[in-house]
Design a protein that fits this description.
Elements: H1 2-14, H2 19-46, H3 50-72, H4 87-113, H5 116-138, H6 144-177
Helix pairs in contact: 1-6, 2-4, 3-4, 4-5, 5-6
């Protein structure tokens, strides 16, 4: 609850809302949540590590995108997939691919070793650090309400971490007491 309240406070005082944006945001949250739960379930079901899951998932994602991309991106000519490419464009695409690989690998590793909820806590923490970093490094304006939102979110993350650590200690002590 504190995390949700904190994210709402930050978003409400930072972003302009409209109905279409809310629909896309809700769909994004739904799809992302389902994806994260699926990653955790498949990793445990198949008994694979993060690298193995990525090895099998990446070709399927590429095949699905191969069908969809031509509807949204030009295929031939200037700026097209099969058009002329500059060296900087090729390097940018390669760098983007490497970063995407590393992001996916870290997602699978965190979810596989913890849970989708813990991964989301990490994402909210990253969000708070990004907002604070923007304020400190670039003097981005930060309203009092956004500050309260960040504090509320961080409180929720700390409470979640405390509860998880307590749960782990309880599990360890129960295992130690078993004959």
């Amino acid at each position: 609850i504190p995390i949700t309240l904190g994210v709402i406070l930050n978003s409400y005082y930072d972003v302009k809302f409209n109905f279409l944006g809310m629909v896309f945001a809700a769909l994004g949250v739904l799809v992302t949540s389902l994806y994260q739960v699926w990653v955790g379930a498949k990793q445990h079901e198949l008994q694979v590590n993060s690298m193995q899951l990525l090895y099998y998932q990446a070709p399927m994602s590429s095949a699905m995108l191969l069908v969809v991309v031509p509807f949204f991106e030009p295929v031939f000519g200037e700026g097209g997939i099969f058009g002329p490419w500059s060296v900087s464009a090729v390097l940018t695409v390669l760098l983007s691919g490497i970063i995407a690989f590393m992001v996916n690998l870290s997602i699978y590793w965190i979810i596989g070793n913890t849970s989708p909820v813990t991964y989301n806590m990490f994402g909210h923490f990253k969000f708070c650090i990004t907002l604070c970093g923007g304020y400190v490094l670039f003097q981005d304006p930060l309203s009092v309400n956004q500050g309260l939102g960040i504090a509320c979110t961080l409180f929720g993350i700390l409470a979640y971490t405390h509860c998880k650590l307590r749960e782990q200690e309880g599990n360890k002590s129960r295992l130690a007491q078993r004959p």
